[in-house]
Amino acid sequence: MSQSMRKPARQFMRTSVSIDTNEAPGTIIVDSQRKFLYHVEGRGRATRYGVGVGREGFGWSGDMKVGRKAEWPGWTPPKEMIAREKAAGRIIPPYMEGGPNNPLGAAALYLYRNGRDSIFRIHGTNQPWTIGQNMSSGCIRMMNEDVQALYAKTGTGTKVIVIGPDGRGRDRIYREAGLAASGQNILETLFGG
Fold first, then answer.
1. Active-site residue 39, yes or no?
2. How far apart are alpha carbons 117 and 125 in whole angstroms?
3. CA geometry: angle at 98 spanning 31 and 91, to 5°?
4. 21 within 8 A of 49, measured Cβ to Cβ
5. Bridge partners of 110?
6. 123 among known catalytic residues
7. Which of 123, 138, 160, 165 is catalytic?
8. What stretches in the chain show pLDDT beneath 70?
9. Which pLDDT value is given to residue 192?
10. What sign does the CA torsion over 48, 161, 114, 142 have?
11. Helix, strand or coil for residue 6?
């Protein structure tokens, strides 16, 4: 199997989980240490996705908002990245049109702090084998089919909480309680939903 077809480990595949959080439905929680992104659905449930996160020295934490969204976005690498890659003997273009070969993949959620673009993104990838790894320059990578599903459920203004690579503060934000029962939750099953 070619590297481009390799999928991430099973635990990083999209699944429905039970979650204990005070965050409102629609909130996105990224746990950089565990390499999971949670889309809070409400009623104690979330959709959990596997993600790739920042490599050593590129991890971060904090609260952001989705400032804008784009499908098959073009990519303008930061000047610092262009210089860093050039110093390592790799030349990256100053701009790349959107499409299947673009590093931002099928969709991107642009993360803003205090109304300004942070340069961080939640985006797809044409390298699905990087999910579950520390590979990026700080952006959150998802498989293309996963970022498309998240994109469809996420509006601009959505709150995004990123827990850093050390996991500090995780227990104040969420606690995963295991896989959710398929279909309805137990109270909906017993009492109707």
1. no
2. 20
3. 85
4. no
5. 68, 121
6. yes
7. 123
8. 1-5, 181-193
9. 44
10. negative
11. coil
